[in-house]
């Protein structure tokens, strides 16, 4: 057994730097998780030799089909599952260290809320776990409720909420401590396209303020829209990893975009290109994606003053979700 | 340290609040109160001590309904949270597993105490309704205190009505009803100190059998022990298996003196008897017969037994929970 396996939350071999503040946000080395049955017989190897290093300030996407080990990986990063072998460090410390947890925000796959608490009580409860004072808890709760568009439903039991509304309050609870690292499992699941766009914009804004985000999603468009880098898991192993643009770029094709020329000039241009370079040329109109089209339609309806039930309009980013750099949470040189 | 105390209080308060807001908890509490209130009306008690049967039956309701209330509360607050994922969210915050487990116990123990306070108030009221106090110059034969009985039923009805009104103002029905039930039963008890059994004004002639209070306190101690057992089992079992095993532990513990007490020479039998909770230590209703009292030293020993047993069970539960996957 290697050294890392003997100390599953010990320092991975790749760790360098001069302390927790300079370490990568997430680091795993040969991480494995085997689930066992009641008789301790192995049932499934959910994660198999995972090596990850996510620097601070990055938005990293974890992709994979069902059962590929994404959620298990996330739960090991949070100290909820004990690794069978391998090593994990989060923000330079073991994941079950309360100092680490104090700087993490976690949104699970299902929103996992106390169904008899109202959103306001929910946020107050989680704020208390972080040792926030009464006035600060109240202030942050109001800001977050406004941010996720649930001020009007702040005193209703969460158990009565639709999935999308529960998702919003789940996101709010993940942000109550103004975390340096956000771990989001399917954050847009159950949200309408407007909500999805708001969550993606929120992630981009938070990333712009120096937060590290680990995003786990089946929705490839979400990952493509917000992530700097991604890894694709299959059967608990990484099958591809790299920068999103690098991975998706078609290196042997080129697209030229230009203003509309009219049929005759277009045909002339195509003929010239074919004649001069001898390569096949395709011409079409670029199209906006369905999400953009949907948002335009709903935006027009909103402008006309039509009201909707359920979650209200979300406001901008909560004020207290300030710049991480301002509090010394970004990478510092040794 | 201050942060940890705050976290502990927040988690325990949440466990208690979630348990009290469960409809099943209200159902058990109101059933216990209503059945206790019905006892003096439906029981034929002509055994020379009118209050005895009512007192013992009401304490039995307190015990049995309390077992279900604390068993389900303990199981829901841990087993269900672990399966539903709310435990995972809480444990992703800066909260240690030991604190999470112990705060759950504190919350459930508080629920057991609150349930017991309500059930004890019901028992005191029912006994007052049924008991023909010999000190009172009453005509011979059985006399029900219909005035106290009316106030007892009124307390239940008013509690539900008030909770309905509170619910209209967006307050949770179950916890509001429980709070109002306790409050109105206290008011009904206080009214007993102002009127005699015929309804005449008689301030400060309580005619309440306060000897019931230590007996109810012992039942509460049993419920706390039971909560610890249910919580420890919940670290590994789901709700239904937890409640089933708890019922088995209750029945075997109740019979342990009878089943194992005869085999004192046998080491396994002695060990099993020591390991099983002996519920008979907490059931002292018969001691109140014929004007009897529960001796104070006995109460101290029983509470010490409950504390030691609870501590041992929680220690085992903690060991299980530390290695449990919370997902």
SSE diagram, text form:
The complex is a heterodimer of chains A (334) and B (327).
Chain A: H1 3-6, E1 26-36, E2 42-54, E3 59-63, H2 70-77, E4 85-90, H3 98-101, E5 104-107, H4 119-129, H5 134-148, H6 163-175, E6 181-185, H7 193-208, E7 212-216, H8 220-226, E8 229-234, E9 237-243, H9 244-248, H10 263-277, H11 290-303
Parallel strand pairs in A: 3-7, 3-8, 5-6, 6-7
Antiparallel strand pairs in A: 1-2, 1-4, 8-9
Chain B: H1 2-20, H2 23-42, H3 50-84, H4 86-91, H5 97-130, H6 146-168, H7 173-192, H8 212-234, H9 239-260, H10 267-275, H11 296-322
Helix pairs in contact in B: 1-3, 1-5, 2-3, 2-5, 2-6, 2-7, 3-5, 3-8, 3-9, 5-6, 5-7, 5-8, 5-11, 6-7, 8-9, 8-11, 9-10
Structure description:
- The complex is a heterodimer of chains A (334) and B (327).
- Chain A is α/β, with parallel strands linked by helices and 334 residues long.
- Chain A is built from eleven helices and nine strands.
- Chain A has helices spanning 3-6, 70-77, 98-101, 119-129, 134-148, 163-175, 193-208, 220-226, 244-248, 263-277, 290-303, and strands at residues 26-36, 42-54, 59-63, 85-90, 104-107, 181-185, 212-216, 229-234, 237-243.
- In chain A, the strands form two sheets. In chain A, strands 5-6-7-3-8-9 form a six-stranded mixed sheet, with helices on both faces. A three-stranded antiparallel sheet of chain A has the order 2-1-4.
- Chain A is globular and about 70 Å long.
- Residues 1-11, 13-17 and 324-334 of chain A have low confidence and may be disordered.
- With 327 residues, chain B is mainly alpha-helical.
- Chain B has eleven helices and no strands.
- The model of chain B has no long low-confidence stretch (mean pLDDT 88).
């Amino acid at each position: 057994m290697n050294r890392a396996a003997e100390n599953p939350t010990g320092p991975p071999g790749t760790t360098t730097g001069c302390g927790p503040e300079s370490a990568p946000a997430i680091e795993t080395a040969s991480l494995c998780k085997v689930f066992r049955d009641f008789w301790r017989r192995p049932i499934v190897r959910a994660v198999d030799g995972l090596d990850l290093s996510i620097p601070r300030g990055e938005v990293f996407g974890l992709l994979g089909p069902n059962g590929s080990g994404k959620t298990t990986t996330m739960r090991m990063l949070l100290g909820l599952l004990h690794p069978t072998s391998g090593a994990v460090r989060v923000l330079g410390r073991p994941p079950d260290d309360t100092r680490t947890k104090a700087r993490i925000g976690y949104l699970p796959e299902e929103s996992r809320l106390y169904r008899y608490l109202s959103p306001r009580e929910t946020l107050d409860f989680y704020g208390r776990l972080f040792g926030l004072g009464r006035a600060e808890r109240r202030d942050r709760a109001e800001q977050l409720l406004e941010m996720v568009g649930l001020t009007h439903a702040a005193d209703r039991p969460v158990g009565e909420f639709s999935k999308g509304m529960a998702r919003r309050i789940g996101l709010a609870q993940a942000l109550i401590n103004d975390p340096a690292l956000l771990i989001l499992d399917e954050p847009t699941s159950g949200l309408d396209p407007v909500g999805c766009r708001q969550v993606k914009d929120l992630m981009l804004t938070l990333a712009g303020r120096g937060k590290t985000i680990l995003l786990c999603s089946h929705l490839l468009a979400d990952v493509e829209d917000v992530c700097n880098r991604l890894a694709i898991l299959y059967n608990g192993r990484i099958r591809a990893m790299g920068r999103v643009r690098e991975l998706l770029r078609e290196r042997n094709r080129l697209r030229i975009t230009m203003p509309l020329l009219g049929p005759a000039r277009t045909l002339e241009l195509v003929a010239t290109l074919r004649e001069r370079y001898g390569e096949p040329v395709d011409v079409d109109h670029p199209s906006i994606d369905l999400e953009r089209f949907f948002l335009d339609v709903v935006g027009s309806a909103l402008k006309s003053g039509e009201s909707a039930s359920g979650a209200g309009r979300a406001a901008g980013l909560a004020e207290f979700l300030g710049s991480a750099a301002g509090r010394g949470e970004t990478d510092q040189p040794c | 340290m201050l942060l940890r105390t705050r976290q502990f209080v927040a988690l325990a308060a949440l466990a208690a609040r979630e348990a009290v807001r469960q409809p099943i908890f209200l159902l058990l509490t109101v059933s216990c109160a209503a059945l206790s209130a019905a006892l003096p009306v439906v029981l034929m008690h002509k055994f020379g001590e009118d209050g005895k049967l009512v007192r013992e039956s009401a304490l039995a309701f307190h015990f049995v309904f309390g077992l279900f209330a604390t068993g389900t509360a303990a199981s829901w607050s841990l087993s269900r949270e672990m399966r539903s994922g709310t435990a995972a969210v809480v444990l992703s915050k800066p909260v240690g597993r030991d604190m999470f487990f112990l705060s759950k116990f504190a919350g459930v123990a508080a629920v057991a105490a609150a349930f017991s306070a309500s059930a004890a108030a019901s028992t005191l009221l029912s006994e007052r309704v049924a008991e023909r106090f010999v000190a009172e110059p009453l005509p011979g034969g059985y006399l029900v205190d219909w005035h106290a009985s009316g106030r007892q039923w009124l307390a239940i009805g008013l509690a539900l009505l008030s909770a309905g009104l509170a619910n209209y103002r967006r307050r949770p029905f179950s916890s509001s009803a429980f709070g109002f039930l306790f409050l109105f039963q206290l008011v009904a008890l206080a009214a007993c100190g102002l009127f005699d059994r015929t309804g005449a004004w008689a301030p400060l002639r309580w005619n309440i059998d306060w000897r019931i209070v230590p007996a109810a306190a012992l039942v509460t101690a049993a419920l706390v022990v039971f909560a610890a057992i249910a919580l420890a089992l919940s670290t590994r079992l789901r709700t239904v298996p937890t409640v089933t095993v708890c019922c088995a532990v209750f029945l075997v513990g109740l019979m342990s003196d009878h089943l194992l007490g005869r085999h004192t020479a046998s080491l396994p039998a002695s060990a099993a008897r020591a390991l099983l909770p002996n519920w008979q230590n907490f059931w002292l209703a018969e001691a109140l017969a014929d004007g009897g009292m529960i001796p104070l030293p006995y109460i101290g020993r029983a509470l010490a037994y409950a504390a030691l047993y609870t501590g041992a069970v929680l220690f085992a539960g903690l060991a299980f929970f530390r290695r449990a996957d919370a997902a």
